[in-house]
Amino acid sequence: MKADALTDVAGVRVGHATRTGDGWLTGTTVVLAPEGGAVAAVDVRGGGPGTKETDALDPRNVVQRVDAVTLTGGSAFGLDAASGVMAWLEERGRGVRVGPEPTHVVPVVPAACVFDLRRGGDFRARPDAALGREAIEAAAATDPGAPVPQGCVGAGTGAVVGRLKGGVGSASTVLPSGVTVAALVVANAVGSAVDLETGVLYGEYFGGRPRLPDPEVHRAARRRLAEAAERNAPPPMNTTLAVVATDADLTRAQAQKVAGTAHDGIARAVRPVHLLNDGDTVFTLATGTRPLDAKDPLALNEVLAAGADLVTRAIVRAVRAAAPVDGPGGAWPSYGELYGGS
């Protein structure tokens, strides 16, 4: 049975490390590639990104494959979590070989962060190397194809989308060619995921004809959101992060194209996007077990379209799975709390 999540790409695993209470509201998520790594790429479109090792993914550069991607809270401080992921990989001889011994490796662990500082109340409560190690250990301990916990977990623990609580979401599909494409997002955006005129999630306009919330429910929701906004500090920096994974055999240039078009999925589900105080970043991982049709120069198109669609679906799931937070760092209602099953 498929999990309808990133782990439907064979060999890809996801682990979360979550910290809440006593001033904490943050965490780290690690996407662990199969043994031997995966072709990787990145596309950064936000004006305020916090990233690590993204230049290594440029197709012009030497690194061919990576073993893990780290998504983390804590803004730029939280990028320390990637050091814990690197240490775990090094101990297992996974990384770029740089010496004669099998242990002479340098793991390349691309990472990106979201801004969630002080949302739990303590500005200094943020992910570090120990939390990164905890997240990759959690990923390694999962069974193949295991469901991915969603909502306020891992890097989505302190996530906020506009005035609503955000979180982690994931989705997958199998294309007519047999290729699997999947996405995982950390939805933490300056822009809104909700059409304030109707109460419908923007991303659900692309899945058919969404049912409109009752007008009185929507009016009550808008009042609650306005009250919460008065209490909370304005969000100075926010970001939506995504990993699009596939079992297609992609070149590094093709993987970069997938990362670029996947940003369309963010633009459908959040408005506005790619602002100067967003750090919107999309990674691609391609495990390469299914070749594309070599006779069709446009065979990549179905992967490109699916990646964007799945990012949209994953953002919707993240917002729907999120739970409300009311603590010393602020109050953020959840979509489910405000609109129920609408």
Would you give an account of this structure?
- The protein is of the alpha+beta class and 342 residues long.
- Helices cover 25% and strands 24% of the residues.
- The chain has 6 helices and 16 strands.
- A 5-stranded mixed beta sheet has the order 1-2-5-8-4, with helices on one face. Strands 3-14-13-12-11 form a 5-stranded mixed beta sheet, with helices on one face. The chain has a two-stranded antiparallel sheet with strand order 6-7.
- Helix 4 crosses helix 5 (301-321).
- The longest helix is centred in the last third of the chain and has 21 residues, at 301-321.
- It is globular.
What's a quick, concise take on this entry?
Pfam families: Peptidase_S58. Helices cover 25% and strands 24% of the residues.
In terms of structural class, how would the helical and strand content be classed? alpha+beta
Q: Which range best describes the helical content: under 10%, 10-25%, 25-40%, 40-55%, 55-70% or over 70%?
A: 10-25%
Beta strand %: 15-25%
Mean pLDDT over the residues: 95
Radius of gyration: 19 Å
Order of helices and strands: EEEEEHEEEHEEEEHEHEHEEH
Number of strands: 16
Strand order of the largest sheet: 1-2-5-8-4
Largest sheet: 5 strands, mixed
- CA(first)-CA(last) distance: 27 Å
Number of helices: 6
Stretches with pLDDT under 50, minimum 5 residues = none
Shape descriptor = globular
